[in-house]
TrEMBL record:
Coiled-coil region(s): 420-447
Gene3D superfamilies: Tetratricopeptide repeat domain (1.25.40.10)
Entry's Gene Ontology cellular component terms: centriolar satellite; ciliary basal body; ciliary membrane
Name of the featured protein: BBSome complex member BBS4
One Pfam entry name: TPR_11
GO annotation terms (biological process): cilium assembly; protein localization to cilium
Length: 577
């Protein structure tokens, strides 16, 4: 048996038994072929000649006008992020189907939303919902676009309709929780989402909800459960480590941050947090090595350059510190912590006018922090503006109800300006705060140099017999200091020598008192106040300026979820779904 293909003829015109038919004959015999015979059976004729007609021909299968025939190609280009080609295929498909291909419209809407065209994408998703009203996915995407447009109540209605079609979809409950998050009613649906299906994003959001409500313990429990469910999630581990760092539980903080670095050695949030802990304890060189690694991942991070600047400040490299802090300020001009540190460094360098400007800007951004007013008063005192310095001290004492250093500094300022009655009032208020701190924490201790300064103040006011600062076994030293100070009660307190000895005052205070944290829409700002010693070469006018030694620079680990507050983090939360 032999197949012959005439010149110029294709495989579809191949004839059997070596014959060649005219077009007329071919049409006749093709019409005689039963429909049941396929092109494959034509090639089996040499094996079973009795079952086939004498002449059989193969022909190509016709193209059927199926609406979804290009869906696979659209999907391939979409997942490869070849959006231009994908849009061209979608356009061709919609022209052929007169706009009735649901999947093509759906993918086109997804691409438009990725390009930031939220309103056109909403209209396309609504078209999909009209073509297929029984699809919960279409309703979810309509609600998602409404959510991104800020229409949270309308999004809630569509999510409820989608939940009616698919009751066991955890993502619907999660997104409902996000919508209620913006109208201040959120916890119920996040818990429902966790009951349906445990997911890392839902754990993160529920923990953030507890942090907004000030329920740190509940947030820690949520994150602990999340870590048990997903032990290799570095974001959960670093977040939990930062929360323990906020509570002063350094061992647990190191444990979770170390686990995060084990799974991801380049996790800049964990690196920055670990570096800040080392910086808090004075290990500036080790912290700088950590920051070098983080700088490769986030070279434009304001918290990173802030902490690097304060490392230089701790090493007494003030020009380098100002340079790094200025860079952090350029990247985040509305971060009051960077302005606070710039004011502190300029105070240390005796550039009081510059310090005044930075501290004033920080107060405008955070008017509820007493230490800012205290440092501003120090700058104003050195600028010989006694009236405004007094007002700044009064404001600091009014706002800060827990820090005894504010009242001690104010008392020294008043004593140096001859107001002994007001000095005694501030000193007694300082003692009340000290007693309150010791009642709340039995192991609370102050630095010895700070205690000496308080004893000198008490001796000058002749109230040293009832000092709350006195420790057993140091009576002789205290009496000696009191006697020395009592010789000249009218003289200004403090000398340059005393200033040099007060380099490490308030170390215990900074390590034992938990400063409040700042939350803005759920993004926790954890910051640590490490001790930074002051140069011995400073020459203040009076000891009222000593308290700038007791106010350590603010350094802080990264903001949770990896960005600073000034950059609009909520967009990232939206795109996590």
């Amino acid at each position: 048996m032999k197949y012959v293909t005439p010149p110029g003829k294709g495989a579809s015109e191949r004839c059997v038994l070596g014959g060649y038919l005219s077009p007329f004959c071919k049409a006749v015999f093709v019409s005689l072929i039963p429909p049941a015979f396929s092109p494959v059976s034509l090639y089996l004729f040499p094996l079973f000649p009795s079952q086939f007609p004498l002449f059989c021909f193969s022909r190509p299968a016709p193209e059927l006008p199926i609406v979804e025939r290009r869906n696979w190609l659209i999907h391939q280009h979409y997942i490869r992020k070849d959006y231009d080609t994908c849009k061209a295929i979608i356009k061709e498909q919609l022209q052929e189907t007169n706009g009735m291909c649901e999947y093509a419209i759906y993918v086109q809407a997804l691409i438009m939303r990725l390009e930031g065209k939220i309103q056109p994408s909403l209209e396309l998703f609504q078209s999909c919902a009209i073509l297929n009203p029984g699809s919960a996915d279409n309703l979810k995407q309509v609600a998602r676009s409404l959510f991104l447009l800020g229409k949270h109540k309308a999004a809630i209605e569509f999510y409820h309709e989608a939940a009616r079609l698919n009751e066991k979809d955890w993502e619907i409950s999660h997104n409902l929780g996000l919508c209620y998050f913006f109208i201040k009613d959120f916890q119920q649906h996040l818990n429902i989402a966790l009951r349906i299906n445990k997911h890392d994003k839902t754990f993160m959001m529920l923990g953030k909800v507890h942090l907004l409500a000030g329920e740190t313990d509940k947030a820690i429990e949520v994150y602990r459960t999340a870590v048990e469910f997903s032990p290799e999630n570095t974001e959960l581990l670093s977040t939990l480590g930062l929360l323990f760092l906020q509570l002063g539980k350094y061992q647990k903080a190191f444990e979770h941050l170390g686990n995060a670095l084990t799974f991801d050695p380049n996790n800049y949030k964990a690196i920055l947090a670990a570096g800040s802990m080392m910086q808090t304890h004075g290990d500036f060189d080790v912290a700088m090595n950590k920051y070098r690694v983080a700088a490769c991942a986030v070279p434009e991070s304001p918290p990173l350059w802030n902490n690097i600047g304060m490392c230089f400040f701790g090493k007494k490299k003030y020009v380098a510190a100002i340079s790094c802090l200025k860079r952090a300020h350029y990247m985040s001009p509305f971060d009051w912590k960077v302005l606070y540190n710039l004011g502190l460094v300029h105070l240390t360098m005796q550039q009081y006018a510059s310090a005044f400007h930075f501290l004033s800007a920080a107060i405008n951004l955070n008017p509820r922090m007493g230490e800012l007013y205290m440092l501003l008063a120090v700058a104003l005192t050195n600028l010989e503006d006694v009236e405004n310095a007094t007002r700044a001290y009064e404001q600091a004492a009014t706002i800060d109800e827990s820090n005894p250093l504010v009242n001690l500094n104010f008392a020294i300022f008043l004593y140096n300006h001859g107001d002994k009655k007001a000095t005694l009032d501030q000193y007694q208020e300082m003692e009340r705060k000290v007693n309150r701190l010791r009642d709340n924490n039995g192991n609370f201790e102050f630095d010895t140099e700070l205690m000496d300064m308080a004893q000198k103040m008490g001796a000058a006011l002749q109230v040293s017999e009832g000092l709350v600062w006195t420790k057993p076994g140091k009576d002789s030293k205290s009496n000696g200091n009191s006697a020395a100070a009592a010789k000249a009660p009218g003289a200004p307190l403090g000398t340059n020598q005393a200033l040099g000895q007060a380099m490490s005052s308030a170390a215990s205070y900074n390590k034992n008192v938990l400063l409040p944290t700042a939350c803005w829409l759920g993004f926790l700002l954890l910051f640590v106040l490490p001790l930074t010693k002051t140069s011995r070469t400073m020459r203040p006018r009076s000891v009222s300026h000593l308290l700038l030694n007791y106010t350590a620079p603010t350094i802080y680990p990264p903001v949770l979820y990896g960005q600073s507050v000034a950059n609009g983090q909520l967009v990232n939360v939206h795109h996590q779904l």
